[in-house]
């Protein structure tokens, strides 16, 4: 009787015994100061996973560069990608499907493969909302309903989407009213008010949340603030999406007036953690991710 000897091919043996390597990364331009590698490496380590996180600078008009990177996700060479300025919209035509959130916001910040199809999602909106709710609870702020969002770019879209879908009345203040109108019009089923810097004074008392979604105050221009110099703040909680420096001028000025205020580091961590969950199926510890960037 022939002996039953199973020979495991070397390649299969290798697959059976090697841990899966997660190859993650970020597409954007420029990417010099990104904190994402530290945050995601910390998450991989904390979850006991092997992998890396690379920066892929792709210049704004390099369509071929974008296509090649997305193809690497399709083939499994890259497990998942984050997307930042200027490609959050450029990647959309190259994807098979958008999640309802990404579709409604009109921007993608996370890409992954499901059933061999490239999916685009947006974790900025739930990341912002989770951190906002934590901030409002921590600061023991009474239930708020009226928010002023300054800016009408990519992150403002995610912020406004998150707020209106959670019962907030939203007013957008933008220097280009056309951009603000487009944002408001794209979120059908919701009434969004528009204002400009000139009329802010008349309306400010109605707001109990102020969100900065412009880059004003971001290093190296840390002496700037989106709030007009001579205008008193509303009696509002202040959430600044800018997280570098750790205390922005807007946050410093608001705190000096006795208001509760925070920068956007918590949102950065939360949107990263949600993307990580989509790529790995694991829930990473937020405090370890946060500690990785000081
Ligand atoms: P974006 O798409 O370029 O939009 C920026 C918005 O700010 C636009 O409406 C722009 O108006 C306005 N703006 C720029 N400079 C201005 C100025 N001097 N005065 C008045 N308005 C001005 O950028 P984004 O992606 O929304 O990012 C905005 C900021 O949020 C950045 O600092 C980014 O780092 C931060 N962010 C943080 C997180 C986080 O996780 N915490 C996530 C996303 C973004 P124009 O179109 O007229 O220039």
Brief characterization of the structure:
The chain is of the alpha/beta class and 294 residues long. The protein is built from 11 helices and 12 strands.
Your description of this structure?
- With 294 residues, the chain is an alpha/beta fold.
- 37% of the residues lie in helices and 19% in strands.
- It contains eleven helices and twelve strands.
- A six-stranded mixed sheet has the order 2-1-3-5-6-4, sandwiched between helices. Strands 9-8-7-10-11-12 form a six-stranded parallel sheet, with helices on both faces.
- Strand 7, helix 6 (154-164) and strand 8 (169-173) form a beta-alpha-beta unit.
- NADP nicotinamide-adenine-dinucleotide phosphate is lined by residues 85, 124, 151-156, 174-176, 179, 213-216, 218, 241-243, 264, 267-268, 271.
